[in-house]
Specification:
93 residues, alpha+beta, Translation Initiation Factor IF3, 4-stranded mixed beta sheet, 4 strands
């Protein structure tokens, strides 16, 4: 499982890293995100396709702390289409 610690990081760059990593994940793989900016959780949920992941854990840290831990599992997308052998694989000559 890949873990991203976003505490005290440059968020837009970190979100891009998470999105790129998520695209390379296989169904069943998990990703963990640790952060302390309350807006990061909603940003992560916005950048990832909602039909392709399931929240496995969403933990808030003790009171007086903004820290959180979010764990997501990649699911098989119902919208996923395979191009293997399809017309888009053919080249015009």
């Amino acid at each position: 499982m890949q873990s991203f610690d976003l505490r005290d990081t440059i968020i837009p760059f970190s979100l891009l890293q998470i999105a790129n990593h998520f695209q390379r994940m296989k169904p069943g793989d998990e990703i963990e995100v640790i952060g302390n900016d309350p807006g990061i959780e909603s940003d992560i949920r916005k950048i990832l396709p909602s039909s392709e992941y399931r929240v496995v854990a969403d933990e808030k840290q003790p009171q007086n702390s903004r820290n959180f831990r979010l764990r997501l599992k990649k699911e098989v997308s119902s919208n996923a289409q395979s191009n293997q052998g399809g017309p888009s694989c053919l080249k015009s000559i």
